[in-house]
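Model it.
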Amino acid sequence: MALDPNERPKQPIAKFESMLKTDDVYFFDSEDFEDIIHHYLNNGKVSLAKKAIKIGLHQHPDSIELKLLNIEVLVFENNLDVAEQMLDQLQLLDSSNEEIYIQRANIYSKKDNHEAAVALLEKALELSNNNLDIYSLLGMEYLFMDDFELAKKNFMQCVCFDPHDYSSLYNVVYCFEFLEDYDGAIHFLNDYLEQNPYSQVAWHQLGKQYMIKELLEEALAAFDFAIISDDEFIGAYFEKGKVLEKMGRYNEAITNYETTIKIEDPTSHAYLRMGKCHEKLHNDDLAKYYYYQTVHEDPLLDKGWIAITEFYCRKNNHERALYYINKAINIDGENPLYWKKCAAIHQALENLDEADFAYKQTVDLGNYEVDTWLNWAAVVKTNCDLQSAIQILIQGFEFYPDEAFIPYRISGLYNLQGDQLNAEKYLVIALRLDRAKMSLLKREFPKFYRSYRAQNIISGNQNASE
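Modeled.
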């Protein structure tokens, strides 16, 4: 039994949901169906949107707008062939409808044909009356094409028409950052703030640009203005804390991090920053407390485990440091810097086989820093494997052919192996690169350094250079 019209919900969405709970069928204008469908799509309730589309098309089978919403859902669900067929039919009925071109552009975009998508969106723009959604879509297509200048231009159009379109504002700043045009971003944001002086988002973004340029006083002022615009803006307090840290004002930084925790639930990142500030202030117990709070809040935040690791390394408590670096590696075993830290800890504990393995992982994962090769070779040498140490250093020398420390060590190791020919060869190479670093040979391989053959090469090389 149908409800009396006066008893039915007045709002279309409430009325529609009431209808779904009963066997009654209510009539809606096609515009009401459009509002209902947009509401569900905007809130991610696609199944309810599809129900509304089905009922709407049953009541209004000739509604082009409802058919276009149906096509939008089909594109979203990757039913592209069906969507294209329906667009072909609609275009015969209304070839000047901008939404047809927009949906065709979406299909091409999904097929990674972004040039075609741009051409269709440009056509849609010709047919529309400055549809801001089209500028936004064009901006995204240009981002896909890595054309950040044109992407920026289109997102700027969105911001120009709607200063509160913060999504487009973020995208404009992102384009400036990708182009490394930080001065351009600062100029744009300052112009924007001339017209919108209480935009906390713009002040926040301006502060971040000043931070990139190490203009700390300017960054601090920008974050203060963001907080004045919105005294519960957590991001501004957090970034202000980071600026104060860089300025060495650790107590003030802690106060700002504490504010973020008071406004909303604590975050692991705030605890981590507070721990680092307390460590700078030599409040070791508080530093340790906040580091542990960091990993308690987010056990998967590897930076928290690394912070604890480094804390214990600085205290020369390598046994504890080893426990926590393994926690970090369990979370991100592909991070070469974690393996490098693990190798250094094993090296300090004289766990030579474990250090050797960790350095190998470090290199396999792409860390080729000069000290990685030198320290790895030192571990292998201490483990009495001279040949492997030599091969490690030769490999490192390929990456750093101008680093004299490496051939000096290779020379000394070949001498220990009894291979005088290669020892002398690499000593000559090292001397040609940098005689001043010869002290390494004297310190680490004193017997070889004092030998007649080495001194003859050293003096001969000196005479040749003179």
